[in-house]
Write a structure and sequence with these properties.
- With 240 residues, the protein is of the alpha+beta class.
- The protein has 2 domains: 60 residues; 142 residues, Nucleotidyltransferase, domain 5 (2-Layer Sandwich).
- It is built from 6 helices and 6 strands, in the order ααββββαβαβαα.
- It has a two-stranded antiparallel ribbon.
- Helix 1 runs antiparallel to helix 2.
- The N and C termini lie far apart (74 Å).
- This is Transposase DDE domain-containing protein.
Length: 240
């Protein structure tokens, strides 16, 4: 009869059997490919890539089985998209997401994609990168820097001070009296930041940035950049 609750010994035995089956199947596939090549037929690159992914998954699972752990560096979570990494989000009902993550900047009503990756990354570490990309794009540094509060680290504050770029972060430490003029400027810039959130929602709803239809690692980035380009073109057309 089937057991409702599997013991650790039963689970480990099943894992060992599955690993042996996978090793056998990979070996048989390689032998079949050698036979096909000996007959003068061509084996496509797609098939070779799939076998390499299968081998990597096998060795990762074997390593975790031997070490009796559930984690390993750069663990493949998708056979068809091996470049995708789990991204911890902490959202209600969706604590982990799989896919691409990008860092967008908002300049004069237009969106620009400064960084794109299929893995988790810390946005606050990209402040220097944003400044460098802005300088390459426009030939000068931005007059001010408005971002989420997670960007407001001491390192980023000192960086912006070094580059003489005004920032709109809340002061750290003991509360100090702020001039009314600076307070008005801060509130005005925070309202500008709210426009970024609106632009992101618009890009997902009307330009399908939340539903990537191109396959491949480069295809997903191309889809996102094309959607942002279409959005910027419409903004420019409305202003013309």
């Amino acid at each position: 009869s089937k057991k409702k609750k599997k013991t650790k010994k039963t689970i480990n035995k099943a894992k060992k059997q599955m690993l042996q089956y996978v090793r056998r199947n990979i070996k048989q596939l390689k032998e079949a490919i050698e036979i096909v090549k000996a007959q003068g037929q061509r084996v496509t690159q797609k098939i070779r890539d799939r076998i390499q992914v299968a081998e990597k998954i096998y060795w990762q699972q074997l390593e975790m089985y031997k070490r009796k752990v559930n984690r390993i560096a750069d663990r493949i979570v998708s056979f068809h998209r091996p470049y995708v990494r789990p991204i911890k989000r902490g959202k209600v009902g969706r604590s982990v997401e799989f896919g691409a993550k990008g860092a967008l900047v908002y300049v004069g009503g237009f969106l620009f994609l400064d960084y794109f990756a299929h893995k988790a990354f810390s946005e606050d570490a990209l402040a220097r990168h944003h400044l460098q990309v802005y300088q390459e794009r426009f030939g000068k540094l931005p007059p001010y820097f408005v971002a989420d509060k997670k960007y407001g680290t001491w390192e980023n504050r000192n960086l912006l001070k070094e580059y003489e770029v005004r920032e709109s972060f809340k002061p750290l430490g003991r509360r100090v009296k702020v001039e009314r003029r600076d307070e008005r400027w801060f509130k005005r810039k925070q309202k500008e930041r709210n426009r970024i959130e609106g632009s992101l929602g618009n890009s997902k709803c009307n330009y399908e940035l939340d539903c990537v239809k191109y396959s491949g690692e480069k295809g997903s980035e191309l889809w996102v950049r094309a959607g942002i380009l279409a959005m910027n073109l419409k903004t420019a057309a409305n202003r013309a």
